[in-house]
Design a protein that fits this description.
The protein is α/β, with parallel strands linked by helices. The protein is 47% helix and 19% strand. A hairpin with a 5-residue loop joins β6 and β7.
Length: 311
């Protein structure tokens, strides 16, 4: 049997952690290992990890000083033993048939990455939406044109490719580290498969990194992603929407100077986007899209003054 390694970084999740671990213990597929990386959590999360490890030898716990989610994941990548690897966030959980169905898909096939759908779950347990993927096996160019995930959760990787190419998370980033990791993997992988089954449950946490991020962190990620897409233009379809999101959030944050925002606009929109927008949207939509960005560009000085006034 093929072993699946499941990596769960743990930090300040004592109220959710049991739900996550229990979902892995409930898997119908039994040949797995769970790597719990206690990232210097100040609450009872580390103790909960140790309790579970005493109950099941497939659970391995590592305690380390706090270094962030990327460092925790990299630590796990250096210690895993599975043929395949997937990631689960510690406040999320997976359906009990997830691993069994995914291993069946891999059996006798030569694709290098498998993805499946997810549910977006609210605090009160309601399903806000369900994201399904197209069922297909495709090369990189075709796969990027389809509905796919740019998250490491909901994705199963071949360990041999990660180790053979020394693919790791960028520990200098606080945002978009998932996207960068998965794109680095896709560069060296041969083919990709997605199924329309939904196995992952994403807990919509209001304390998420992007929702509470600083503009300087977004700017750092923008630069790193920009360098990557210049090397591999095929990933424009992944990176340009991220540029859009970051620029919009930076506008809403209003925590950088006007000249800096305008330089970002020129670098990440004006100099790169028009041709891409015309390819992606109708001419009328492209004009509306461009107009919205131009309004943000002109309005930022006023936005910046208002933010400063009320702080």
């Amino acid at each position: 049997m093929s072993k699946v390694s499941i990596i769960v970084p743990v930090y300040k999740v004592e109220q959710y952690l049991a739900r996550c671990i229990d979902s892995i213990l409930a898997q119908t597929y039994k040949d797995w290992e769970l790597l719990l990386i206690d990232d210097g959590s100040p609450d009872r999360s580390g103790f909960i990890c140790d309790e579970y490890a005493t109950k099941d030898p497939r659970i391995r716990v590592f305690h380390k000083e706090n270094g962030g989610v990327s460092m925790a994941r990299n630590y796990a990548l250096d210690h895993l033993c599975g043929d395949y690897v997937t990631f689960v966030d510690s406040d999320d959980w997976i359906d009990k048939e997830c691993l069994e169905m995914c291993v069946k898909e891999f059996k006798g096939s030569d694709f290098d990455m498998l993805q499946f759908g997810y549910r977006d779950i609210s605090y009160d347990g309601k399903v806000l939406r369900e994201k399904t993927l197209d069922s297909q096996t495709a090369d990189l160019k075709t796969y990027l044109k389809s509905s796919f995930l740019v998250t490491v959760w909901g994705t199963i990787f071949r360990t041999s490719i990660i180790k053979g190419n020394n693919i790791r998370f960028d520990t200098s980033l606080k945002l978009a580290e998932d996207q960068l990791f998965i794109m680095q993997y896709m560069v060296v992988a041969n083919s990709f498969k997605s199924v329309n089954n939904v196995y992952y449950n994403y807990f919509n946490n209001s304390d998420g990194a992007v929702k509470n991020s600083k503009s300087e962190d977004m700017i750092k990620s923008l630069g790193t992603l920009d360098n990557f897409v210049r090397r591999y233009p095929i990933f424009e379809i992944v990176c340009f929407p991220l540029f859009d999101n970051f620029l919009a959030l930076i506008f809403l944050n209003g925590d950088i100077g006007t000249s800096k925002y305008k330089s970002l606009y020129k670098r990440f929109y004006k100099n790169q986007k028009p041709n891409y927008i015309l390819k992606k949207y109708s001419k009328l939509s492209a004009i509306s899209y461009t107009l919205a960005y131009f309004v943000c560009y002109l309005a930022y000085p006023l936005r910046y003054k208002l933010i400063g006034k009320f702080r």
